[in-house]
């Protein structure tokens, strides 16, 4: 995060940003303007990894992934983010990307917003191709969503013919 609380730009990621057994959040936000923009990455070959009981919280958008960048999110907590994970313009997402065994939630300390002090959504997919959330072979790898307006929000995804 830069000193103004804005997103960590991809040029500073040098291709990989990893959060493991850690957490990051904005200190004591009380209104929408106090929430920081989170992590932004764009482009194939750029990677974001969040795992091992890490926490991403109090952000406008926790992690913004676009243009087929890679995301691995597993066994972590996403709390009080307006949108925790936002995928955009990723018609051919990295086939190794995955999101499983995470907990997405909101609680009473969430800022006042149009959603009644709840996060808008845990995962937003906007113009995204085939992407697996959880596992279609192992129910134990599912994600959980609690006290949110939407768990998974899908918008304007293209129709793909096979």
Molecular structure report:
By secondary structure, the chain is mainly β. Helices cover 2% and strands 40% of the residues. The protein has one helix at 10-13, and strands at residues 16-20, 23-25, 39-42, 47-51, 55-57, 61-66, 70-74, 77-79, 83-90, 98-100, 103-105, 121-128, 144-146, 150-155. The strands form three sheets. Strands 2-5-8-11-13 form a five-stranded parallel beta sheet, with no helix packed on it. A five-stranded parallel beta sheet has the order 3-6-9-12-14, with no helix packed on it. The chain is globular. 35% of the residues are buried. Mean pLDDT is 77; it is low at 1-14.
Strand and helix map with partners:
Elements: H1 10-13, E1 16-20, E2 23-25, E3 39-42, E4 47-51, E5 55-57, E6 61-66, E7 70-74, E8 77-79, E9 83-90, E10 98-100, E11 103-105, E12 121-128, E13 144-146, E14 150-155
Parallel strand pairs: 1-4, 2-5, 3-6, 4-7, 5-8, 6-9, 7-10, 8-11, 9-12, 11-13, 12-14
The percent range for strand residues is 35-45%
Describe the biggest sheet?
5 strands, parallel
Q: Write the H/E string, N to C.
A: HEEEEEEEEEEEEEE
Q: What's the overall geometry? A: globular
Task: Supply database-style keywords.
1 helix; 40% strand; 162 residues; globular; mainly beta; five-stranded parallel sheet; single chain; disordered N terminus
């Amino acid at each position: 995060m830069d000193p103004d609380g804005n997103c960590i730009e991809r040029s500073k990621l040098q291709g990989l940003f990893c959060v493991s057994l850690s957490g990051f959040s904005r200190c004591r936000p009380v209104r929408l303007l106090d929430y920081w923009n989170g992590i932004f990455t764009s482009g194939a070959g750029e990677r974001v990894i969040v795992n091992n009981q890490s926490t991403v919280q109090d952000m406008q958008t926790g992690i913004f992934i676009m243009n087929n960048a890679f995301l691995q999110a597993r066994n972590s907590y996403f709390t009080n983010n307006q949108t925790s994970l936002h995928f955009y313009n990723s018609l051919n997402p990295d086939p190794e990307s995955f999101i499983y065994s995470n907990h997405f939630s909101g609680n009473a300390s969430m800022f006042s917003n149009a959603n009644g002090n709840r996060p808008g959504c845990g995962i937003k997919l906007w113009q995204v191709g085939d992407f697996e959330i959880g596992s279609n072979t192992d129910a134990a790898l599912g994600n959980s969503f609690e006290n949110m307006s939407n768990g998974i929000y899908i918008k304007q995804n293209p129709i793909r013919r096979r």
